[in-house]
Predict the 3D structure of the following.
Amino acid sequence: MSDNPYDLAEEAAARLRERLGLDRIDVALVLGSGWSSATEVLDPIASCELADLPGFSAPVVPGHGGRLIAVRTPGGRVAAIFTGRTHLYEGRGVDAVVHGVRTAAAAGASRIVLTNGCGGLDPNRPPGTVVLIADHLNLTGATPLRGARFVDLSEAYSRDLRDLARRVEPGLGEGVYVQFHGPQFETPAEVRMAGILGGDLVGMSTTLETIAAREAGMEVLGLSLVTNLAAGLSPVPLDHHDVQEAGQEAGPRLQRLVTGLLEVL
Ligand code: 8IG
């Protein structure tokens, strides 16, 4: 196995093609917290364990899956669905966090859908609301880029793909996603800070993956499922079980959304 992350992604992409019996993939989709029910309506043409590909490891959080599922879209394209991701807070480093994204790019994907579960700052967007990510604040202090790689992020989340998503679900609103390092949830003061800085959603993923995807030249669609009101906005403490519960409840809507996206992507 290579210790260069880009070469490692090439190795993983080669194994992905071999394991799934595919020449290439066209689209990738990463399912975050709360989104796993989307897999129930997929009609796989092939699948494998992510941990069987170079550079991936088994998931550590309950409810975070670890399979790679290939489906053929109605338009005849191949979509690869990653049912889990590595988070920065796992301590495996930034390269591990973006390895799936780089593998998808190396396997041929030109578009990637990054989904997550997050905390919401707007009480008018209660748990169960899906929000299109329009932009982000990366507060992790980390980057997947090394050296003088000046990647343009002025439209990190493709406007075209957001418009496409609204053809599937016209009412989708937009927001700015703020990534904290985690794994602790925010303090109420940190949530207020995120709001003052222009954020609408708080989470522990996605922005580093988006940076890596843009470096690789992929178009990014970001979708956040609000699974809880952010700290200080709700009278009850935050709990990982609520995250899974919100996902369960939103299940049928997420399934329709993912199915619809696969029709247009
Ligand atoms: I699900 O409220 C989920 N992930 N940082 N804050 C942060 N991450 C989250 C939250 C939240 N909910």
Q: What stands out?
A: Residues 33, 117-119, 180, 182, 185-186, 202-204, 227-228, 230, 238, 243 surround 8-iodo-guanine (CB under 6 Å).
